[in-house]
């Protein structure tokens, strides 16, 4: 791991690191950022992954 990587996501297949927003950490083999899945906010501290649409 890079010493200045603050955490996020790691791909064990090819060793790419992504920040908490899913952006590729610099100088990694991944060609693009992670895809943002469909989601909506159910409450201020609750999110539903897999559905798109307006929040209640």
CATH superfamily: Rieske [2Fe-2S] iron-sulphur domain
Residues in helices, as a percent range:
under 10%
CATH fold naming = Rieske Iron-sulfur Protein
**How much strand?**
15-25%
**Main beta sheet: strand number and arrangement?**
2 strands, antiparallel
Q: Give the neighbour order of strands across the main sheet.
A: 1-2
> How much is the average pLDDT?
84
Domains (count): 1
Instruction: Sum up the overall morphology in one term.
Output: elongated
Which structural class do you get from the secondary structure elements?
mainly beta
CATH architecture annotation? 3-layer Sandwich
Number of helices: 0
CA radius of gyration = 14 Å
State the total count of DSSP E strands: 4
Level-1 CATH class name: Mainly Beta
* Span of the ends, CA to CA: 40 Å
Order of helices and strands: EEEE
If you had to describe this structure to a student in words, what would you say it looks like?
The protein has one domain (1-56): Rieske Iron-sulfur Protein (3-layer Sandwich). The protein has no helices and four strands. It has strands at 9-10, 17-18, 39-43, 46-49. The strands form two sheets. A two-stranded antiparallel sheet has the order 1-2. A hairpin with a 6-residue loop joins strand 1 (9-10) and strand 2. The radius of gyration is 14 Å and the shape is elongated.
């Amino acid at each position: 791991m890079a010493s200045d990587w603050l955490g996020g996501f790691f791909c064990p297949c090819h060793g790419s690191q992504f920040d908490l927003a899913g952006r590729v950490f610099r100088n990694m083999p991944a060609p693009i950022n992670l895809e943002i899945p469909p989601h909506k906010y159910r409450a201020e501290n609750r999110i539903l992954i897999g559905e798109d649409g307006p929040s209640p």
